[in-house]
Amino acid sequence: MSALHTVVPIGDKERVLLLAHLESVLESPAFAGSRRRQDFLRYVVQETLAGRGATIKETNIAVDVFGRSNDFDAQTASIVRVTAAEVRKRLAQAYDAGLGREVRIELPLGGYQPAFHFLPTREDGHAPAARPLPETPAPTGIVPNRRRARWRIAAIAVFATIAISAPLALRWAHPTSSIDLFWRPFLSPDRPVLITLATSSNLLYMPNFEKWTPFQPGGMIPTAELHVLTATYVGSGGALGAALFAEQLATRGQRFSLKFGSDMSFADLKQSPAILIGTTRWTQELTRSLRFHIQIVGNQVKMVDAQQADRDWVIPLRQTPELSEGYSLVTRLLRSESGHAVLIVAGMDARNTQAAVEFLSRDSSFDLFAKSAPRGWETKNFQVVLRNTIHGNSAGSLAVMASHVW
What we know:
Elements: H1 12-26, H2 35-49, H3 58-64, H4 79-96, E1 103-106, E2 115-118, H5 145-173, H6 178-183, E3 193-197, E4 200-205, E5 226-233, H7 236-251, E6 256-260, H8 266-269, E7 274-277, H9 281-287, E8 292-297, E9 300-305, E10 312-316, E11 325-333, E12 342-347, H10 350-361, H11 363-372, E13 382-391, E14 394-405
Parallel strand pairs: 3-6, 3-7, 7-12
Antiparallel strand pairs: 1-2, 4-5, 8-9, 9-10, 11-12, 11-13, 13-14
Helix pairs in contact: 1-2, 2-4, 7-10
């Protein structure tokens, strides 16, 4: 440790400085482009600030950060040790580039609990006590050059302080929310996030549909007068999801692209993080092996719990105006089969998809889940089963029926 730095107790002021400094380090060129190193450093710093630094072990990091199973064998797998060495090297590069003038993060050899060092303002490590300036009578005539120079220096110092403090003040005013943590795995300066929307098939009556409406019980429409439209329309839930999720990404400076689900291939998923809205072939394939997934069984649509055979959530496949509730599934995979983070938002119909979209777009709704979720949920995979009421063509009140975090 440098003689210019000293370890001090962590108070509220130091905590704020550290968190602001952590974000600056993670955004620096030394860490940009490597989510693995970013997640590692963020985890050990946050755990230490939460008072759990002494309990950080190789297994904890492997499970909480890298999604390994609880039977992770540190003797045969070196991902944590290799990443720790990379983080130490990148910290040194960041500080050599000019960061760390007021505070530094150190990851000592032989452990995973970081140390925090602050640059003192005096040799004894304490800020000098403020002393009032003596009052002097205002001079008459021309101000001497020396005094004018002092005022210039003071003014420059004030403006410099404001410029340096502004980003920190913004962080105080806008602390990291649970929604921020939710979207963090999808933020990358290297590639846009792919947003895909499920499309529905529709029948168009040709040449004149008016002669068949209103429908007559038992009436027969010749197939020659029907035309099947595929990949033409999206449901209201998908359209709302594309708009709100694009807004969430754009406000965080993240680029995105948009595709219909029928135009998407698995090769597209291998190129970038993705958001899949609505029930499609790919949403079903990516969730088939997970605990919760949607199935069509006979004349019913079911949300199945693979770990509890006697528990499911059901609505009729042929929906009626009397249907008063529905269900949806939110799945976030940090490391999917595609190699990238994937968010799947699928309802049993468009209104239920709309409810799931609103769940992820309203801080108050998602906060309730985040507060009840296991510690470290932000660095893990999870699924949430949602129930919503239905009023006409819109979703109503929302409730979390079940969840799974791993």
